[in-house]
Amino acid sequence: MLPCGVSPAPGRGGAQLLEDDVLSHSDPTTGLPVGPRAPRMSDAATATAPSYTSEEILAAVLKSVDDDKAEDIVQIDLRGRSDVADYMVICSGRSSRQVAAISEKLVDRLKQEFRVSSKMEGKETGDWVLIDTGDVIVHVFRPEVREFYQLEKMWLPGSAHRGA
């Protein structure tokens, strides 16, 4: 008997619930995804536009933050560990102005090169800017704020690569 308000998945017998379709991509014991995520296309992309991979976005992000003199750049591979994104990049700027400039230029470059509409939070204060490109999450910190939150310690074990 199905719980109140739950209907069977369409086209299947009553034994399988609609939930099974949603959860079938995750390992039931850990809740982690069992396969790689499908590559995304930007919101403005059409069927004829070329797609891009998360590795291409990552390379563009790393080049952009390096070109803008970001410091202590850390790249973290999230594949198989999170459904949120494939990679995370954490870096620092020396001042609030530099943090905002690194973030703004990164978003502009990704929009020009890949037509990716990135979401950005925190640019107004310039202490910690979060940029969500879909495949790559980027955190740009002032050094004091980065030290306080120590975000990479939560994600780093065995999967990070430190660059200059």
List keywords for this structure.
164 residues; alpha+beta; Beta Polymerase, domain 2; 5 helices; globular
Commentary on this structure:
Belongs to the Iojap/RsfS family. The protein has helices spanning 18-23, 54-67, 96-114, 143-149, 151-155, and strands at 71-77, 87-92, 119-121, 128-132, 136-141, 160-162. The chain has a domain at 54-162: Beta Polymerase, domain 2 (2-Layer Sandwich). The protein starts with 17 loop residues before the first helix and ends with a strand. Strands 3-4-5-2-1-6 form a six-stranded mixed β-sheet. The chain has 164 residues and is α+β, with helices and mostly antiparallel strands. The longest helix is centred in the middle third of the chain and has 19 residues, at 96-114.
Write the element-wise H/E pattern from the N-terminal end onward.
HHEEHEEEHHE
| Spatial separation of the terminal alpha carbons | 59 Å
Q: How would you sum up the global shape?
A: globular
Coarse structural class: alpha+beta
Low-confidence residue ranges: 11-24, 42-50
The CATH architecture of one domain would be 2-Layer Sandwich
Reported by name, the CATH topology of one domain is Beta Polymerase, domain 2
Helical fraction: 25-40%
> What proportion strand?
15-25%
Radius of gyration: 19 Å
Quaternary class: single chain
Q: Using DSSP, what is the number of strands? A: 6
Overall pLDDT confidence: 78
Which class of one domain in CATH terms?
Answer: Alpha Beta
Task: Assign the CATH superfamily of one domain.
Answer: Beta Polymerase, domain 2
